[in-house]
Amino acid sequence: MAVKNGQTRVRTADERRSEIQATAQEMGIDDAFIDTLVDAFYSKIRDHSVLGPIFNEKIGEKWDVHLARMKDFWASVALNAGRYSGRPVPKHAALTNVEPHHFQIWLGLFYETLKETASSPQTVSYFMVRAERIADSLKLAMFGLPGLPLERPGAPPQQD
Ligand code: HEM
C-alpha cells in the first residue's frame, strides 16, 4: 500500500519493482554479489556429506546450467529482475530422497555463506527471510502439514 494525499492505494507492479530494486541497491545487492553468493553456496552444498550426493545425483554434469538458473532465480527474488520463470515446486516434489530435516542443513549452509560473503547484517537478513519463506512453501508442498495427509491427485486414499 502507498499513501498519497491522505489516501491509501495499492502500489502498481512497476512501483513495487522500483522499491525492491532501490532497497537492494542501498544494501549493495547486485548481480555480482548474487554470482558470488550462489557459487560459494553450491560449492558448500557439493562438498556436504548429506546434501552433496542428493544434488549430484540429480544434476550430474549439468552444474553450469543449475548455477546459471539459480543466479536468475535469486536475481528475480532479491532484485525483482524477472529472469527466472521455472517451477521449483514440481522439481522438488520429484526428489523422493529429500527429508524435512535436510532443509535445516540447506538453510544453515546458506546462512553460513551469507555471513562469509555479504557486506552487512541487513543483507544477510534480506536473503534469509526470503530463503526461509520459500523453504517453508517447498516443505509444505513436499511433506504437507504435520498430522494432515498430503493430497496427491490420483494417489490412492491413505491407510491408517
Ligand atoms: C533440502 C533442501 C533442498 C534440496 C535437497 C534441493 C535440491 C534441488 C535439486 C536437486 C534441484 C535440481 C532439480 C532438477 O533440475 O530437476 C533443485 C532446483 C532448484 N532449487 Fe532446490 N533444493 C532444496 C531447497 C531449496 C530452497 C530452500 C530453495 C529456495 C530458497 C530452492 C530453490 C531451487 C530452485 C529455484 C531450483 C530450480 C528449479 C527449476 O528447475 O526451475 N531449493 N533443488
Brief overview, please?
The chain has 160 residues and is mainly alpha-helical. It has 7 helices and 2 strands; from the N terminus they run E-E-H-H-H-H-H-H-H.
Explain what the structure shows.
The protein is mainly alpha-helical. The protein has a single domain, classed as Globin-like. It is built from seven helices and two strands. The chain has helices at residues 13-26, 31-47, 51-59, 63-79, 88-93, 100-117, 121-143; strands spanning 2-4, 7-9. Helix 2 (31-47) crosses helix 4 (63-79). The protein is globular. The model has no long low-confidence stretch (mean pLDDT 90).
What key phrases describe this protein's structure?
160 residues, Globin-like, binds protoporphyrin IX containing FE, 65% helix, two-stranded antiparallel ribbon
CATH superfamily: Globins
What is the CATH architecture descriptor?
A: Orthogonal Bundle
Number of strands: 2
Q: Uncertain runs with pLDDT below 50, 5 residues or more?
A: none
N-to-C terminal Cα separation, in Å? 47 Å
Estimate the helix proportion, in percent: 55-70%
Sheet/helix structural class: mainly alpha
In this entry the ligands are: protoporphyrin IX containing FE
* Beta-strand content estimate: under 5%
Count of discrete structural domains: 1
CATH topology annotation? Globin-like
Rounded radius of gyration (Å)? 18 Å
Main pleated sheet = 2 strands, antiparallel
Order of helices and strands: EEHHHHHHH
CATH C-level class: Mainly Alpha
Mean pLDDT: 90
Strand order, main sheet: write it out. Answer: 1-2
Count of discrete alpha- or pi-helical segments spanning 4 or more residues? 7
**Tertiary shape:** globular
